[in-house]
């Protein structure tokens, strides 16, 4: 599953991101995002319904995109993470937390109001309820605002979900350092590999920025909520995460154009016979013992007795396939790390 699935997950995330671009564009244009509140014309109930539907669609698509990308990165790290139990356990814990969060947040997002359609029909449902209750022009009856439904604390919900996103981002970004740092590589190549595997830190930066901006957006002191860039950060985060997840495949390309920085792990060796046995010439490297095949040939006798009196010549034909580590599990890591 790990070998075949992790590469497809960013593609699914990209498909959702493209859908979200359409709803995001519609919501931005209709709701006049980026304008001062006093510059926005008064909207009809029908327009408000459309705006809230687009907003709900954006909310529902946002977390699955990030979850698919994080799952892709986690599965990739499991593939190259070697046999260290604490690394594997950490990755599995993060994976299931990530999966649990997206389910919980999606369900909570979809049913944040009662009844369900109150989340996008609040304008006309409130108006109908106020008319039925005989409310004044401000929708009040005996000092109480009349509403056609109820929702949980949306401000707290959005801030908590953004905080969880930052937390899982930091956890995923920290793991590559644990994987790479103990490998037998030059320090320069370790740093290069860590930088590439940890490009998600850029996404984490945007996540933190989004959390800060949304905190101010929902602050009661903010009376101009539409005049801000916070609305764009969710799309920045989603699309940047997809790009960051794909950077790991650019290792060979960067090695090709930046060989002096990333170095080379190519190894070539030849074994030549000498009076003292086989001597090795050329550049060295490690190779798996399973890749060595031997062939025994004897000369100078036609019977078992001849073996006692004569010397034995053993000729070994060696086929060597060089790899960075002799174990199959570690070879998975080095197959990718060799790009650096």
Automatic annotation (TrEMBL):
Keywords: Membrane, Transmembrane, Transmembrane helix. It is found in: Membrane. The chain crosses the membrane at residues 60-78, 90-111, 156-179, 191-216, 236-254. InterPro entries: Rhodopsin_dom_fungi, SAT4-like. Pfam families: Fung_rhodopsin. Residues 34-256 form the Rhodopsin domain. It is a multi-pass membrane protein. One of its GO terms (cellular component) is membrane. Belongs to the SAT4 family. This is Rhodopsin domain-containing protein. It comes from Hymenoscyphus fraxineus.
């Amino acid at each position: 599953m790990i070998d075949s699935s992790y590469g497809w997950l960013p593609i699914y995330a990209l498909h959702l991101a493209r859908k979200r671009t359409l709803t995001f564009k519609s919501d931005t244009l209709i709701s006049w995002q980026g304008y001062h509140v006093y510059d926005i014309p008064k909207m009809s109930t029908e327009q408000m319904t459309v705006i809230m539907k687009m907003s709900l669609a954006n909310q529902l698509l946002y977390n699955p995109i990030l979850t698919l990308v994080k799952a892709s990165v986690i599965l990739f790290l499991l593939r190259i993470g070697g046999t260290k139990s604490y690394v594997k356990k950490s990755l599995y814990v993060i994976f299931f937390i990530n999966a649990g969060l997206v389910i919980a947040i999606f369900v909570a997002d979809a049913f944040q109001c009662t009844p369900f359609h109150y989340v996008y029909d609040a304008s006309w449902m409130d108006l109908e309820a106020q008319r039925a209750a005989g409310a004044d022009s401000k929708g009040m009856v005996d000092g109480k605002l009349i509403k056609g439904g109820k929702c949980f604390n949306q401000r707290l919900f959005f801030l908590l979900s953004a905080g969880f996103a930052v937390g899982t981002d930091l956890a995923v970004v920290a793991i590559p350092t644990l994987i790479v740092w103990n490998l037998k590589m030059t320090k320069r190549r370790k740093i290069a590999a860590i930088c590439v595997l940890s490009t998600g830190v850029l996404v984490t930066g945007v996540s933190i920025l989004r959390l800060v901006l949304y905190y101010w957006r929902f602050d009661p002191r903010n009376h101009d909520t539409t005049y801000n860039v916070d609305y764009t950060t969710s799309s920045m985060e989603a699309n940047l995460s997809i790009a960051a997840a794909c950077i790991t495949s650019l290792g060979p390309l960067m090695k090709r154009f930046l060989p002096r920085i990333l170095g080379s792990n190519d190894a070539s060796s030849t074994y030549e016979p000498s009076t003292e046995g086989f001597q090795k010439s050329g550049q060295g490297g490690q190779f798996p013992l399973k890749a060595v095949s031997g062939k025994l040939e004897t000369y100078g006798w036609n019977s078992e007795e001849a073996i006692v009196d004569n010397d034995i010549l053993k000729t070994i034909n060696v086929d060597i396939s060089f790899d960075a580590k002799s174990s199959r599990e570690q070879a998975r890591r080095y197959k990718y790390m060799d790009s650096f």
